[in-house]
Amino acid sequence: MISVDLxxxxxxxxxxxxxxxxxxxxxxxGELADDVFTLSxxxxxxxxxxxxxxxxxxxxxxxxxxxxSADDALWLPRExxxxxxxxxAFVSLSADGASLTVTTTTDSxxxxxxxxxxxxxxxxxxxxxxxxx
Length: 133
Prior knowledge:
The protein is α+β, with helices and mostly antiparallel strands. It contains three helices and nine strands. The radius of gyration is 16 Å and the shape is globular. The chain starts with a helix and ends with a helix.
């Protein structure tokens, strides 16, 4: 799973989240910051309103939450989502022992977790695009 720190850096660089079933997230504040949630049409559902997206906690008895603003949640994108976001910049993913390397059209990024290697590649891609603006 992508690290919370890297997910924060991606968000701060401009990566936007449109919550969908199967997405993982943390509530990036207080005592819930260490708990990873998964959007599911059965338990945690994204409700899209003109004023913003609310994440509704349907029937959860273990949490005293009814809903939380998506702005208070931090998306933890999966490997497939990060690869899709890299688009044509993605070249390959390779393994060498415990290390995984994502190669893009401009650089390579190595980590022990595929999501972190993809995330670092995407962060570099976003930051490079921002410098071209």
